[in-house]
Amino acid sequence: MSMDDLPIYGAIYSPPSEGLPFVAAIFKGHALMAFKQASSAADAEAMLAHAVSSVIRLEAEGDPEEPSGPESPTP
């Protein structure tokens, strides 16, 4: 299975103790793609809903800034 075929999903991690933030994380397969702290589980859920759908959309469209072949040296 190639990296392109791996599922993209989000997870919310609760703080292990008082005063620490929630963490919203995005994974592709078993690889961590991004994470961000949130003040509540609801904020983390909203972040993930937006971020995961954006990542899926961007991957479907392709990355226009990603080089299509080997980079040539800049003069």
Work out the helicity level.
Answer: 25-40%
The side-by-side strand order for the widest beta sheet comes to 1-2-3
What is the count of β-strands?
3
From the spread of the alpha carbons, the general shape counts as: elongated
Order of helices and strands: EEEH
- Annotation field: number of helices: 1
Q: Which properties best describe this structure?
A:
single chain, 75 residues, alpha+beta, three-stranded antiparallel beta sheet, 1 helix, 28% helix
Description:
The chain has 1 helix and 3 strands. The chain is an alpha+beta fold and 75 residues long. The protein has one domain (3-61). The chain has a 3-stranded antiparallel β-sheet with strand order 1-2-3, covered by helices on one side. The protein is elongated and about 40 Å long.
SSE layout:
Layout: E1 8-13, E2 22-28, E3 31-38, H1 41-61
Antiparallel strand pairs: 1-2, 2-3
Give a quick precis of the structure.
This protein is an alpha+beta fold. The protein has one helix spanning 41-61; strands spanning 8-13, 22-28, 31-38.
